[in-house]
What does this fold into?
Amino acid sequence: MNRDNLIQDLVADLQPVKRAGRIGLPAGVWLLAAGVYTTIMIFVSGPLRDDAIHHLLDYPWFAAETAVAIACVCSIAIMALRSAIPSGTPIFKRLVPLLLLSALWTSFYVVGLWEPAHPVSMDGNRAHCVLQTLSFSLPSMALLLYYARRQLPLWPRVTGALAGAAAGAIPAAWMQFACMYVPIHILSEHLAPVLLMAAVGAVIGPFALNTRQNVPRSRNESVH
Amino acid sequence: MTSTVEDEARWSQLMAAAHRGDKRAYEQLLRELASVTDHYVRRHFGALSFREDCVQECLLAIHKGKHTYDPKRAFRPWFFTIVRNRVIDLLRSAYAGKEAPTMTMDNSQTHPDPSDELAAGDILSELDINQRKALSLTKIQGYSIAEAAERSGITESAMKSRVSRAVRSVAQLLQQDRGKE
It folds into this structure.
């Protein structure tokens, strides 16, 4: 196909665009859908730790830890969608604030090895919290990849990794209340799966976000 | 010749009009962007026909991602990010053996050696001779990794490594070139 024909095809395919360049709506829908889904799954799979919610008022550092976790979830999800929008700023530079926020979230538990934000407790121990964190993440990751695919993901590994991390961070944050509070357990059984989900997202991202399959003409032929 | 500032404003307006469904504005925009992409690829990679693949891939990406452009933001960074990414993607996908682009010599140009053509592009002229030759054999002359390795008197894995390093170098050089866009 020559260039003129291609341009004619693309012009003929033009449809009006609403909300150009905005990711607020898909981000909001995803956060709501993934949040509700994960909440349901958490409650279906077992009870919350006794008085876990009340402890937000009793222990300010625990409340701060939870607030940072929620901020992390929202930021990673928004960044996953933003990473699927071309920008002049190099992608890794755009990730710096997010990495700092994630490091802050992790640092609560690292510090907690010596000075826990909440009394260490085996109450609420879930036998399969790792598997639950991973399995609850998968549908959320699929939905976020779907929304990212509708943008223009030029760095599919990065977008995939962020989608995996965002999806994994929601159940990880819920485990603050749904599983036992032991910092080393949180690091190895709740936060490590977030990294694993990020790795899974990075691997499947190039396949799930293959934008070259979704163009308005047959790409079986050569572009010549 | 219009200035960068005028281009920026006009392209942004044309894309905003395209978002409203204005087909004439969209056609004008695509034709101008095709021309700019063509010039960009020629400047960096020389007068080889794979630039037409790049131009068409970029047009397709712009079409698919036109809704990701926010008219309140600058147009050029959005546009050139797509162009850079697609150029690298095309080189990389050819290396990986998927959808290998046709990279024959431009018929309108008569040069005896594709390496000379590569050298005509300012980005590729900055590659070392081995990387440039590796790109020339695999991307321009269409040899497989095994054939290119045999012609260069090196092993297949060494050739793969050279091509991979060359593509990475091109990506870095294009990133460094962002200020000149």
About this structure: The longest helix of chain A spans residues 183-208. Chain A has one domain: 29-44+51-210.
